[in-house]
């Protein structure tokens, strides 16, 4: 049975579920920042997923990247699966823009955060869900 890590749940807004991943919006309006969480109980590392799930994860990362690129026109898309703070397998897809508060460094640990207003997060989550399913 799949369950979402408490920290991911606390730091994000739900967007939608794809074939493999639950898509979340990071509650930080400074960056268009999606988190994809494979809905596989106990998943910790990409290389431990079966071949089919690995391929699906890569397609869903590419899908999320295209949506972020189309909706936000960033200069760069950062994709990362760190797992140092949250062991549950999750992949960050972040649109970066030259001159953003952490550019050119990483967003993690930058000290820059600005949460969404709840209504803004819900509206953006719906816009993202619509875009993800339109391209899927």
Automatic annotation (TrEMBL):
Domain of life of the native organism: Bacteria
InterPro entries, per the entry: HIT-like, HIT-like_sf, HIT_Hint
Protein name in the entry: HIT domain-containing protein
Naturally occurring in which organism (per UniProt): Azospirillum melinis
Domain HIT: 34-103
